[in-house]
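Entry for the shared binder. Reason: the reviewer on the internal report wants the predicted structure included alongside the sequence.
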Amino acid sequence: MKKIGILGGTFNPPHIGHLIIANEVGMAAGLDEVWFMPNQEPPHKEKSAGAEDRDRLAMLQLATKGNRLFKIQSIELERPGPSYTADTMDIIKKEYPKDQFYFIIGADMVEYLPKWHRIDELLKKVTFIGVERPGYSMETEYEIMSVDVPEINISSSMVRSRLRKGETVNYLVPEEVVRYIRENQLYGP
């Protein structure tokens, strides 16, 4: 039985904050793998403009290469419509019935848990691991694990904004991802 953490998001683009969270949670929780799971349509927000699904996957592959803990799970990109975690976990649990799953979320999503689709069923399938985020509370009525990670206040929207303005994103995004963004003229002016 493997202990697998899942970090979902748009990863549009993936940045150093995503990597730090995945690595820190993986080590603190003793996970065997951390899956980066890009979603198709996050139900709680509009899909961000910018990169196509194939570009987001390519950038994730570049960002995560070299870390044996990191894997990419593209299941949510392979199905149409909103990416409800409960639906995704139904599929994953059928495919990996013996593994134990941990869903990694930021404090913004901890506050949002009561609104998650089929939350009570989902809590039987995964253990949530909450990561603190500036300006959000970790208090919830649901049982979650909490992992302390270095505070890294980087967001994909901030990275996209800087790129649109022609500003640097060095050290915010892995170098290989910056190169991919430039070569494929993503997010730029």
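Summary line for the report: The longest strand covers residues 3-9.
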